Amino acid sequence: MEQHLFSVEGKIACVTGASSGLGRQAALTLSHRGAKVIAIARREAELAALASQGQGLIHPIAADLTDQAALAGLARQAAAAFGAPDILINAAGVNTREHADNVTPQGWDITLALNLSTPFFLAQALVPAMKEKRWGRIINFASLQSYRAFTAGISYGASKGGVAQMTRAMAEAWSPMGITANAVGPGFFRTELTAAVFADEALAAKNAAQTCIGRNGEPSDMDGPLLFLCSSASDYVTGQILMVDGGFTAK
């Protein structure tokens, strides 16, 4: 019974930001458990390498997710691979790490577009098919900065604060049709997005000490939370932000 409860076998998942980091981990985790995965990112070589590890269950699509006008077409392209997705994981993101004094309109717009606008409009394009099935899962990526202000993080924090509220609003709009919307909020995981943080060993150690567990996150630490939110185990969970941060926000 428990295995069935957390099963994603036979489901169709669309994962953005799948060429690296936690998006890549999500694509592999789902495919290794029998889900068919449409992996979307910009870099073709990295996507091809990912697909080679997916046992035929990962279909790569190279696309610029900041092009909002192309998202409806991208949703149709995603559905052409295995069928209409049951699950959407919005893992793509960018952090320009600019101090408030130095934020440019271009940097602000790119950050808000990829971190906030793209997850909404891609979900909007995929939701009609989920409504027909009366079953769907939307998992957004929130952040520590959904709740806390970090140095040189004003545009990123604004976008991730928006993700938290957008997730609640998605749940209000679509959960009556069987579509749950939740978010995961990673702590400090060693990924491309956090390379600058982990390059500073003292800072990485300080972040680890801030957690209740006493270490920074490993990509596999995200597997269980994602499988919970993608499966029937979370049927009665929606509009929530699950912080996967080792207790960073508890202290």
UniProtKB/TrEMBL annotation:
Family matches, as Gene3D superfamilies: NAD(P)-binding Rossmann-like Domain (3.40.50.720)
Gene Ontology biological process: fatty acid elongation
Similarity field: Belongs to the short-chain dehydrogenases/reductases (SDR) family.
SUPFAM superfamilies, per the entry: NAD(P)-binding Rossmann-fold domains
Domain of life: Bacteria
UniProt name for this protein: Gluconate 5-dehydrogenase/2-deoxy-D-gluconate 3-dehydrogenase
Classification via InterPro entries: NAD(P)-bd_dom_sf, Sc_DH/Rdtase_CS, SDR_fam
Pfam assignment, any one: adh_short_C2
